[in-house]
Amino acid sequence: xxxxxxxxxxxxxxxxxxxxxxxxxxxxxxxxxxxxxxxxxxxxxxxxxxxxxxxxxxxxxxxxxxxxxxxxxxxxxxxxxxxxxxxxxxxxxxxxxxxxxxxxxxxxxx
Length: 110
Description:
Strand content: under 5%
Oligomer: single chain
Number of helices: 5
Largest sheet: none
Radius of gyration: 14 Å
Structural class: mainly alpha
Shape: globular
Helix content: 55-70%
């Protein structure tokens, strides 16, 4: 767990993703990854956000604090895209992962 404090944002997500792919449910590690991910959320790109939500979902470990933080970060990124801050990239993928848990950040015009 202590090594997690040295991990980059991508390293944290890769750890969660790997455990999900191997179907290893380790609650102490998941809580530590979640806490550290929330602290480093400013370093996450959209793919990191989507992969983090996917990993916790695959392990059936709902983490409301992480979901809220990711949803808020994705919303910030979406606003940046609307203001000309680059292309939407993987925002739709992130949105899809969040919607599985009842979280949304995009407003779809009808």
